[in-house]
């Protein structure tokens, strides 16, 4: 056997990047989540060539303290949690401190950030994990991160990228859902100079929904709202007549995080039950709030999957709220019905 070595940071980051940065949309996800965590009210996303040549995210959030900018690119460096106890009450979208170092390991990254309204900040350029430029830089308060030539140093990964259309499709899908999750943030998405999405940031979810699905579809939606000792739920759902051929029209947001949840999708489908034709799915945007301790978001590096600690109660609650909104008379057995 060869001797055991501890891998250097650069190599460790490149390995971690394999999990965190699957494709250009992962970069968009991580950068936009950071912008949201920083309290931004406007986020501008510029993409070139499906994100393979450029992903640039500019926000007007808190900014990164100039002293901390190099640290942000270290692995497990985060301002969002500091102790093991914090892991059980995560309120931010990020917490693993892995995104920036992973992205910087497999791309050319330029980060400009300033916490000052006076505009004095710092500019850091990192290529393949190595700092190539570090200087004072005047910038408005907020952060501007440009990720160029993704996977330029990992040809095996680059080879697996699909067409530009496929990659921008993934990006647009993700940005649309984030916009639905955060109607209070004004978001723009541009690809090769063309505008794909602009939301006003008014806080009105239906308005954001209309920007994505069109005004006619938006007008036909029903609103849902429900309270439970552990959860609150609000959102919009389509009438049973308005169906889709797949589940992509369902967006579930838990504590501000867009997630994929088999459990919640099942509850939604159960609520519509026989109202839907076979193999047809509703449109829905559901925002679920709960105490962070009822939720484990540390299941996968992408944090798209979560675990709920009181799953049966949650299922029943969601189903009941939707059944009520649909105005059906169907009885759902169990304590949530209160009968
Ligand atoms: P995480 O989000 O898990 O903390 P990241 O690698 O994504 O890890 O970011 C590292 C740190 O850099 C964050 O904890 C935050 O302090 C800072 N940061 C990154 N992006 C931004 C941003 N857009 N605005 C303000 N701070 C940021
Ligand atoms: Mg992050």
TrEMBL record:
- Judging by the UniProt lineage, the source's domain of life is Bacteria
Tell me the ranges covered by the DNA mismatch repair protein S5 domain, including all copies: 209-327
Which purpose does this protein serve, as stated in its record? This protein is involved in the repair of mismatches in DNA. It is required for dam-dependent methyl-directed DNA mismatch repair. May act as a 'molecular matchmaker', a protein that promotes the formation of a stable complex between two or more DNA-binding proteins in an ATP-dependent manner without itself being part of a final effector complex.
User: Which protein family is it in?
Assistant: Belongs to the DNA mismatch repair MutL/HexB family.
Name of the molecule in the record: DNA mismatch repair protein MutL
Source gene? hexB
Full protein: residues contained: 1 to 339 of 712
């Amino acid at each position: 056997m060869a001797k055991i070595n501890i891998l250097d940071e650069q190599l460790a980051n490149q390995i971690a990047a394999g999990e965190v940065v699957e494709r250009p949309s992962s970069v968009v996800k991580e950068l936009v989540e950071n912008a949201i965590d920083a309290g931004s009210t406007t986020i501008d996303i510029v993409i070139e060539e499906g994100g393979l040549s450029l992903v640039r995210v500019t926000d007007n959030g808190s900014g990164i303290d100039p002293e901390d900018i190099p640290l942000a690119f270290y692995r497990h460096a985060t301002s969002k949690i500091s102790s093991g106890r914090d892991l059980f009450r995560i309120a931010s979208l990020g917490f693993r401190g892995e995104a920036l170092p992973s992205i910087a390991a497999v791309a050319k990254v330029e980060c400009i950030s300033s916490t000052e309204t006076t505009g004095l900040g710092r500019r850091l350029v990192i290529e393949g994990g190595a700092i190539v430029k570090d200087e004072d830089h005047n910038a408005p308060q907020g952060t501007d991160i440009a990720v160029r030539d993704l996977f330029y140093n990992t040809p095996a990964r680059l080879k697996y990228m699909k067409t530009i259309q496929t990659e921008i499709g993934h990006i647009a899908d993700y940005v649309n859902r984030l916009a639905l999750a955060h109607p209070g943030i004004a978001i723009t998405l541009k690809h090769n100079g063309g505008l794909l999405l602009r939301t006003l940031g008014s806080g009105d979810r239906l308005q954001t929904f209309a920007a994505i699905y069109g005004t006619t579809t938006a007008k036909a939606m029903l609103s849902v709202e429900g309270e439970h000792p552990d959860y609150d739920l609000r959102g919009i759902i389509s009438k049973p007549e308005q169906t889709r051929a797949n589940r992509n029209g369902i967006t579930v947001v838990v504590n501000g995080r867009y997630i994929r949840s088999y459990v919640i999708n099942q509850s939604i489908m159960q609520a519509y039950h026989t109202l839907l034709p076979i193999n047809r799915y509703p449109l829905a945007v559901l925002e679920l709030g709960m105490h962070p301790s009822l939720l484990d978001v540390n299941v996968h590096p992408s944090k798209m999957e979560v675990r709920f600690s009181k799953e049966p109660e949650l299922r029943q609650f969601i189903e009941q709220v939707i059944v009520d909104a649909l105005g059906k008379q169907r009885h759902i057995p169990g304590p949530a019905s209160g009968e």
